[in-house]
């Protein structure tokens, strides 16, 4: 059985003369949470957008579940990158209805994902009236509609209060038990330490560190050491 749901080999993205991602070799194990860390502008979002099919790679390979990634694999990938793609004038159920119609799925999936993200009781309330946390959860629900094998979450705790962050952390931790792998990009080291099984650190578009998070590992010290350039890549 294939160990990794996702591998990248020499993955590179160049914008004009700027290399945003440089020969990235990620290894993301199945049914785990992989934390992707790095300073602003390090290449995290660009990497996730390539995996989610939002950007074309310049060179390198992506392997999904043991085969070369193709756009057909997007049927098994869910993503919440940057702002949740919501229609503010529609309810949570109506937003999900738009998505299920696009994917050719039945209405029963709407109730399932609303239950997963705890939005079943929002009724006819419009998404534009939702709190930031509710909008984030609805964005995750939309990403879950197609029952993805891989869920990509880019800075999902942005704007959340401590209670919202805790609830989202518990939700993310529940996904591997349901046969889903999560790639979580965040600048909040404490949240990654509590949510992730493995961590990768990108600096200047390059993967400088990749390792399983050990019990009692001081991720903040590890991160500062890697970002400041005194430790190289490990597998």
UniProtKB/TrEMBL annotation:
Keywords: ATP-binding, Nucleotide-binding, Transport. SUPFAM superfamilies: P-loop containing nucleoside triphosphate hydrolases. Residues 6-229 form the ABC transporter domain. One of its GO terms (molecular function) is ATP binding. CDD domains: ABC_BcrA_bacitracin_resist. PROSITE patterns: ABC_TRANSPORTER_2. It comes from the Bacteria. SMART domains: AAA. Belongs to the ABC transporter superfamily. This is Lantibiotic protection ABC transporter ATP-binding protein. It comes from Aedoeadaptatus acetigenes. The lineage of its organism: Bacteria, Bacillati, Bacillota, Tissierellia, Tissierellales.
């Amino acid at each position: 059985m294939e160990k990794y749901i996702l591998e990248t080999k020499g993955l590179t993205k160049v914008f004009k003369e700027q290399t945003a991602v440089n020969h990235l070799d990620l290894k993301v194990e199945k049914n785990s949470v992989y934390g992707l860390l790095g300073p602003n502008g390090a290449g995290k979002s660009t990497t996730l957008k390539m995996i989610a099919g939002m950007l074309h790679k310049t060179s390198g390979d992506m392997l999904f579940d043991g085969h070369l990634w193709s756009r057909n694999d997007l049927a098994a990938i869910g993503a919440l990158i940057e702002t949740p793609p919501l229609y503010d004038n529609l309810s949570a159920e109506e937003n999900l209805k738009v998505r299920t119609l696009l994917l050719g799925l039945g209405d029963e999936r709407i109730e399932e994902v609303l239950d997963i993200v705890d939005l079943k009781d929002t009724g006819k309330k419009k998404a534009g009236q939702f709190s930031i946390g509710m909008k984030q959860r609805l964005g995750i629900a939309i990403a879950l509609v197609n029952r993805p094998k891989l869920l990509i979450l880019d800075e999902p705790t942005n704007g959340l209060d401590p209670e919202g962050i805790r609830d989202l952390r518990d939700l993310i931790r529940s996904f591997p038990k349901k046969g889903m792998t999560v790639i979580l990009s965040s600048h909040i080291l404490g949240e990654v330490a509590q949510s992730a099984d493995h961590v990768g650190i990108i600096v200047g578009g390059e993967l400088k560190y990749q390792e399983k998070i050990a019990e009692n590992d001081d991720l903040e010290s590890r991160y500062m050491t890697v970002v400041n350039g005194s430790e190289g890549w490990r597998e």
